[in-house]
Design a protein that fits this description.
Elements: H1 3-6, H2 9-25, H3 39-53, H4 65-69, H5 76-92, H6 97-109, H7 111-114
The structure holds protoporphyrin IX containing FE.
Length: 122
């Protein structure tokens, strides 16, 4: 079973993205990056992306992770803040730790792209 199915499919991903974005927008370490972003479009992209990342139906049509984040010059602190908000969200939804670990592993697999570094520099 994919993580997508294990955590409850589309309704679980919807709930996770909504709580997650509320946390991100309340987090002074990273919310400035989202000041000028169309949040409704962003929610839909995140939902599609997380669905794909969790092994669900592949309907993500956005930019690749490196292209999407390159202009922001993000650092490890920004990445960790986002990951922390995601973990808190999943805990709030009572997702079991072993699934949280799997989801974080998926996030770590795109870290080099999000931070726009070569794998060896990370
Ligand atoms: C596991 C880590 C991450 C994932 C999976 C992820 C996923 C995404 C996706 C799917 C998009 C939409 C791309 C598109 O436009 O088609 C996006 C855009 C964006 N991400 Fe991330 N992201 C991650 C980390 C971060 C971090 C660490 C930050 C900043 C602290 C960030 C800030 C943004 C912003 C501001 C946009 C909108 C860019 C724009 O519209 O100009 N992301 N991200």
């Amino acid at each position: 079973m994919s993580i997508y199915e294990k955590i409850g499919g589309a309704p679980a991903v919807d709930a996770a993205v909504d709580i997650f974005y509320r946390k991100v927008l309340a987090d002074d370490r990273i919310n400035e990056f989202f000041d000028t972003v169309d949040m409704e479009g962003q929610h839909l992209k995140q939902k599609a992306f997380l669905t794909m990342a969790f092994g669900g139906p592949n309907n993500y049509t956005g930019k690749d992770m490196r292209a999407a984040h390159k202009h922001m010059k993000l650092n490890e602190g920004h990445f960790n803040a986002v990951a922390e908000n995601l973990v808190e969200t999943l805990k709030e939804l009572s997702v079991p730790q072993e699934y949280i670990d799997e989801i974080i592993a998926v996030c770590l697999s795109v870290k080099d792209d999000v931070l726009n570094v070569e794998p060896a520099e990370a």
